[in-house]
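<purpose> Linking amino acid order to shape
<body> The protein record starts here
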Amino acid sequence: MKRWLALGVIMLMSIVVVAYETNASNRNFFLPDPLGGIKIVIDAGHGGQDGGASKGEVIEKEITLAIAQHVEKQLKKKGATVVMTRTKDGDVIDEHASSEKFGTLRERKKQDIFLRKDIVEKEKPDIFITIHANAIPETKWRGAQVFYHQEGHAESEFLAKSIQDSIRTNLKNTDREAMSIKQIYLLKKAEVPAALVETGFISNDEERALLIDKKYQEKMGDAIVEGIEEYLLAKIE
């Protein structure tokens, strides 16, 4: 009996050693998920017939979706629950209310925004982030900038500044500061900390080239995630 007990102990120790060596390089094997228990809604701006800003063949809706999907992936790795307003090329109506019909594109875009708001209200996340890209007639302007609504949730300013600081520190290609804005309906109506990330200017030749580059999209997404994490850590402290 003692012999079998000894063999059992040896086998158990062997399994523990193998598990340790397999996972020792992964700090998450020992530590809880840093964003465990956090729910975040990520909104890729525009979609479908509404391409957003564009320059030649470069279209905002494709950039926002690529960055949003990377943000989703990285947030999930950190343990967060992530809800995407859209995961495909189509708009949010295509994905969540495909049977709805509209007489004009303007009406569809309006209802699409309302549906994004409804998703945030239904999911009751801890944070809401909407991702966009900018374009204006003057080609000289560049730089990612994060916005919050001055009449929105009280912590939206802190969230926006945290993401802006992360973008500025990690990408090192903008001196812009987070700014309050009045016009964004989604930011005003969100009952949770909310921020809009303008990831750069499609109208600027250099920045447009960056925004369509996969590695840069990932760097931008990583900076957004780090900003979110820093915001949450600061709240705990």
